Amino acid sequence: MRLALAIAAFVVLIVHGVVFYDQFSYRWERHQIAYLEQARSLSTNPRERAALEERAPHIEQIIVTSFGDTRVDRCVTCHIAADDPRFTGLAEPLKTHPYSAALGDVQRNGRWERRHKFSDFGCTVCHEGQGRGLDTFHGHGEDEFWPEPLLGYVTQPNWRKDFAPHLRGAEYMEAACAQCHTEQDFAGTPHVTRGRKLFYAMNCYGCHKIDGLSEGTLGPDLTEAGKKFKIDYLWESIVEPRANLDTSFMPNFHLGEADVQALVIFLKSRRGVNFAETTLDRYKAHIANVAVVIPPGTAGEKAGQQLLEDRACTACHKLLGRDGGIAPDLSYEGLIRDDAWLMDHFKNPRSRIPDSIMPSFRFPDEDFQRLSAFLGSLKTPPAPPNPAATFKDLCERCHGEKGDGNGKVAWYLDPSPRDFTKQGFMVSKPRERFVTSIKEGVPGTSMPPWGRALKDEQVDGVLSYVLKTFAKIDAPSPKNHNVPDRNPVETSPASLARGEQTFLERCTGCHGRKADGKGPNSLDIFPHPRNLRNSWFVAKVEDRRLFDSILYGVQGTAMPAWIDYGFSKEDAGDIINFIRSFPHASN
Amino acid sequence: MSTAWNTLKELPSNVWSSIFRNPLPSTDLERASTSFTNFFLHIHPVKVHRNTLRPVYTLGLGLISLFLFLILVVTGVLLMFYYVPSTTQAYDRMLDLRGTVAFGIFLRNMHRWSAHGMVAMVFLHMCRVFLTGAYKKPREFNWVIGVLLLLVTLFLSFTGYLLPWDQLAFWAITVGTSIAAYAPLIGKQMQFVLLGDTTVGQEALLRFYVLHVAVLPSVLVLLAAIHFWRIRKDGGLSRPEPREAVPAAPPKPQVYKKVVYGLQGFVRGPFTKVGNVPDDSVYSWPNLLMAELFVFVLTVSVILVVSLLFNAPLEQPVNVMHPPNPAKAPWYFLGLQEMVSYSAFWGGIGIPGFMVGLLLAVPYLDRNPKGVGRWFARERLLANTLFLTLVTLNIIFIIVGTFFRGPNWTFVSPF
Amino acid sequence: MPVDPRLHDNDPDAGQRHIGRRRMLVWLSSVGLFGSAVLAAVSNLVFFKPRVTYSPSARFSIGKPDDFPSGTRISRDVERVCIVREGNRVAAISTTCTHLGCIVSISDTGFACPCHGSRYDQDGNVTGGPAPKPLPWFQVSLAPNGELEIDKNSQVDPGTYLTV
């Protein structure tokens, strides 16, 4: 035991020694000593030299209270030469902080004077990073747990490797400048200005709210995006909208790198408040009528076309030679939609297409009228030479070049465009139904009434083309089921109650508790379950078809034949009454 | 005049001899009495049984737990000189402890690793006591105090976990106190009193701080003192029954007139056992003391080395809007959290409550006097098996909760 | 029964050969433990002395020499210092009253303390009231960036000016 104790005592002594030594060798001390030596050799004044000789290294800090919470910036412990003009040529950390006219610094009597004095601003207000840290890992924010790494100089190790190279560059610091310099087109923050212009040009403002700038409600509020998120997250959210949320319907705008960078810098500058603001400024910005805060230069146009271009509708839609690749082609809009439809749709797209993702823009009524008038004037019919060309020109955009419902804009449409390659579906419906769908459109969906733009032979031709090429059938051969043409069950409160009961018990798994097609199983089913609240759609469908779908299912989809589960005609009739009792979707 | 001068001349030796009043021992009796006559040392008996010193028997686990607690108290008090329990200042103070305070990062590491170590050692000590059957009569109540000490240790660790006020701390405690709210009838009230508010915030931080630095350490010291006292009064650490015949019963004390002093029944302890047990013992000084000193030095060395090599975590500053996914309780509660993911009441309150109840009741349910003082005695096969099964299950749950659970508490592979 | 020398220390014949080795081990242990204790104690003392405080720094910059026109005395209450500029010479006088610590104000004849009526002349010498000592002067130096820097940790003799 004594031997063991002796050995243990020896070991503990060694360990104590290691601990003691470990806590006494700091890099910042070495930096300061190097600085003091260098400063002594550069000194011309013996009194100054003596003072430098006496000075021992210790932690230097700047305490800043004018910018929100108290900041303690210890950067100057290593970067001790930051305000010493004699060190401009040396390597970091003993390097003078650059002077620049762009930062507001002026030259007087041959020497530079800083506009943003370190004693007033500290360092982290502009550079971010961790003021209290005393080594590079913590001080520069390389620690992935620190929310504010050095802007533009540091990428944290857990950032995606494909983004990290784009996230370096001193221009990212403009996001910090904009905390005080919020003026539009401020010369010192060109990237913020560009980002703000893009925010309007790409219609981000239609979906996203930024206090004082916009009022969109479809996407997350970005008022404090710069405070909440790091730049890698902002970059990722723009170039891969679904990276963090599978069900996001934010379009991928396929922007160039410079544009993405400008948007990231602009968003990073959104902190919810800027330090140069008064409470009154902030309040005024908050309650401002945003419809008139669109950048100047776009107000006062007379022609709707001008409006359309300035409202950047082509950021999503196709028109006049430009194509955003996200929304339907508007080239024939005057033919296929009437004025009432256009005005309703402009004011609130969901009043006509309940699951549309088009933002509700709060323009003044006269703007809507001008836009409707312009679109209403597009009455030149298409002139495709043959059915294949018809398909390519008008149908492919949604239904895809393989007819499988995977067109360029298909992802953004709800309900999704029909997949013609589903033979089971195509063969089971009467031809007349397809003809009607093409000629009269499918109300409540993005399928327009092409009959107003195409002649009957063209309609027939393209339908035959579709059936032959994609469904690989010559003609559909629907089964003749024994279903009533009209609902025999009377619409009574009892019937509605029964229908609701059955619905809640059997249908909500796919169609959802609110019958909006968003049941828990819906994400995994293609095509998605029907939104039964889409009353435009439901109103157009005859009872016969509803009976057929409920009792005998819909081939090529996940809708089962409920007659196999014991449904009777009366059960189906009750459900149909229930569905038809929903309030109209235009409200 | 000369008496004044004499007084001054004799001052140093008078001071010395007033403090150290006894001469160096010259006989064996005097040597033996050192343990008996010193304030600090008389926590030990003059002589201890041989078994007490065998490392393989106790593994020194209780001692290690005690020394870890001492390290925690010392490092904790030192840390108190720089820490502020305010939601706006706590995290910044942790940054300063890490960055600028001399030895700050080291002391914090020591505190954190000792804390985790103490929870583990206390648990292992409980296992050792169970598996050697050392809770049996007359040591039942000491076992109960031990279980209470375990609970106090867990609570100490839990309250301390919140103090860094980073994402890890905040959400771990949010999860932990939400589990507590599932207790029937009193759960929500308990949570409200514990947090001082409906959610974790400044009130919770302050309450947890006070509990952690003042209330719980005092309770623990008190219970530990009783725990040690009981060891003495129960005749020392448990050991195998003597193979020789049990010695004659001690002589009956003289019978006085029968007066009943009711309250005294609560506080009166047993008489000493000197002369009543076979003498298979060795002197505490130096044998026991050296063994304890060795364990102490070992514990300190291990903690120092671990603190040199591994840094205690400090994650993002608290963001009440943004829980991490997944949000995990501290490791000793992860078994609970795993169970809670199946059933909130049964996993959080029912089963743990039942297990604690069982632990408390074990010495009163197991009245078989055989198998004391030996590891894995055959007579105790059933008890040991049951115990080890429950322990293993608990450890499995903790492992699953730590490594095999990812975002949204779905199963993930750690490889 | 043989006697195990480790168990019964009161057997004088046993373990004589062990004693020397034992003593050395004890000595080694003591060195180790005592050394560790000393290191630990020193570490604690170092720990206790703060390396940073959160109060304003003792050495601070007050601006360019040009900010202080010749013949002016400008008082900075936050830093508790009065900058005196005469011609091209600059000095800094403390404005903390040496009596009980109130902030003195500049008066026509020097400084006056509102708390207990201490009076000082232009150079900080006591001319009346309960103040026991004159107002100290602080070292003023010219920092590399061209600004004036005051160091309240270095007191200089009254009458010491920096020439700019």
Summed up:
The complex is a heterotrimer of chains A (587), B (415) and C (164). By secondary structure, chain A is mainly α.
Can you walk through the features of this model?
Chain A is mainly α and 587 residues long. Chain A has 25 helices and eight strands. Chain A has a two-stranded antiparallel ribbon. In chain A, strands 3-4 form a two-stranded antiparallel ribbon. A two-stranded antiparallel sheet of chain B has the order 1-2. Chain C has one helix at 16-48, and strands at 59-63, 73-76, 81-86, 89-94, 105-107, 110-112, 119-120, 126-128, 137-142, 148-156, 162-163. Helix content of chain C is 20%, strand content 30%. The N and C termini of chain C lie far apart (97 Å). The chains are: A mainly alpha (587), B mainly alpha (415), C alpha+beta (164). Chains in contact: A-B, A-C, B-C. The A-C interface holds A 2-3, 5-6, 8-13, 16-17, 19-20, 23, 39, 48, 51, 58-59, 61, 63, 72, 74, 83-86, 111, 113-114, 119 and C 22, 25-26, 28-33, 35-36, 39-40, 42-43, 46, 51-52, 54, 56-57, 60-61, 64, 141, 143-146.
Mean pLDDT of chain C: 86
Total domain modules of chain C: 2
Distance between the termini of chain C: 97 Å
Q: How would you describe the shape of chain A?
A: elongated
Examine the coordinates and then state which fold CATH places here, giving the name of the CATH topology of the largest domain in chain C.
Rieske Iron-sulfur Protein
Number of strands of chain A: 8
Query: How many domains comprise the coordinates of chain A?
Result: 5
What is the quaternary state of this protein?
A: heterotrimer
- The CATH superfamily of the largest domain in chain C turns out to be Rieske [2Fe-2S] iron-sulphur domain
How much helix is in the residues of chain C? 10-25%
Q: What is the CATH topology assignment of the largest domain in chain A?
A: Cytochrome Bc1 Complex, Chain D, domain 2
- What characterizes the major β-sheet of chain A? 2 strands, antiparallel
Portion in strands of chain A: under 5%
Major sheet summary line of chain C: 7 strands, antiparallel
Question: Widest sheet of chain A: strand order?
Answer: 1-2
What is the C-alpha radius of gyration of chain C, as a whole number of Å? 32 Å
Gyration radius of chain A, to the nearest Å?
34 Å
Enumerate how many helices of chain C there are, as a single number. Answer: 1
What share of the residues of chain C does DSSP label as strand, in percent?
25-35%
CATH architecture of the largest domain in chain A: Orthogonal Bundle
